[in-house]
Amino acid sequence: MEHRLYFIFGDLLACAVTGAAAGWLVYAVIPGGWHPLLGMMLGMLLGLPAGVVGGILFAPLFGDFEVSLPASLAGMVAGSAVGMLQGMVEIGAATALWVGTLAGLACLAYSYVLQARLHGEAR
User: Alpha carbon of 7 to those of 3, 67, 77, 118: distances in Å?
Assistant: First the structure.
């Protein structure tokens, strides 16, 4: 795990922006009133390319291995969360951005904890 502040900030920024972008994309494509399961599946399918693009855009700045997995996961989870919410109740664009951002940050936290549990501290 990286402890330098530049890379930690980069991880936060990459996951938040990628999650928000995936959330907005899914909000723009999926109409309200769909079945939540269909919205979640289509949201995940739309969120994955958004996560890959986010990983590609942020990788030269913050490192490929450090950004690619959390950004791709953030796109998928944010897309599925916003798609499911859009299916249950019609949400606004600001809500989609916030849900996507929070999902992206949750994916970053998950990947940090998973790496710490699997590999421990690097020395």
Answer: 7, 9, 22, 20
90-93 long-range contacts (CB < 8 A, ≥24 apart) are 90/32, 90/33, 91/27, 91/32, 93/24, 93/27
Tens digit of pLDDT for each residue in 68-110?
Answer: 889 999 999 999 999 999 988 889 999 999 999 999 999 999 9
CB contact set of 5 (below 8 Å; sequence gap of 6+): none
pLDDT of residue 25: 95
Question: What pTM, to 2 d.p., does this model score?
Answer: 0.87
Evaluate whether 83 touches 30 at the Cβ level (below 8 Å): yes
3-31 b/e with 16+ CB inside 10 Å = b? eeeebbebbeebbbbbbbbbbbbbbeebe
Extract the tokens encoding 38.
């269909």
Where are the chain's structural domains? Answer: 5-117
